[in-house]
Design goal:
Layout lengths: L4 H4 L3 H10 L13 H8 L5 H8 L13 H13 L18 H8 L9
Length: 116
């Protein structure tokens, strides 16, 4: 199971209980910080600054400004793509991100246990 870690947090206890009841199944749970995090981590956007931010996120997130790291990563992605063909919007996924090579790079971030 893959879920947005920032959005899923409130439901985790209920799901863990359900998973524990499934003794005959192997269930993998992966909760990346957010979809925006996966895009940034994938290398689709080439930037040394992105790498620095991802390697030391706590040093860059202003707690007063961001309720969650998801909001932080969304802002970073929106700002870094504002003037390009890869312009990112939280409300509608730009078709740029649906290109096979980009989907493959994003899927490349998935742990081997849950690769599609």
């Amino acid at each position: 199971m893959i879920a947005d870690g920032a959005a899923f947090g409130a439901l985790i206890e209920c799901c863990i209980s359900s998973f524990q009841a499934q003794t005959e199944r192997r269930i993998s749970l992966w909760l990346p910080e957010s979809f925006e995090y996966l895009i940034l981590k994938s290398g689709v956007l080439k930037s040394e600054k992105i790498e620095q931010i991802l390697n030391d996120t706590p040093e860059y997130v202003e707690c007063e400004k961001y309720e969650s790291w998801e909001n932080f990563f969304t802002d970073i992605l929106v700002m870094m793509t504002a003037d390009g063909i890869e312009k990112y919007s939280k409300s509608t996924l730009n078709t740029y991100y649906l290109q096979d090579w980009i989907v493959d790079k994003i899927k490349g971030q998935l742990p081997t246990e849950i690769k599609l």
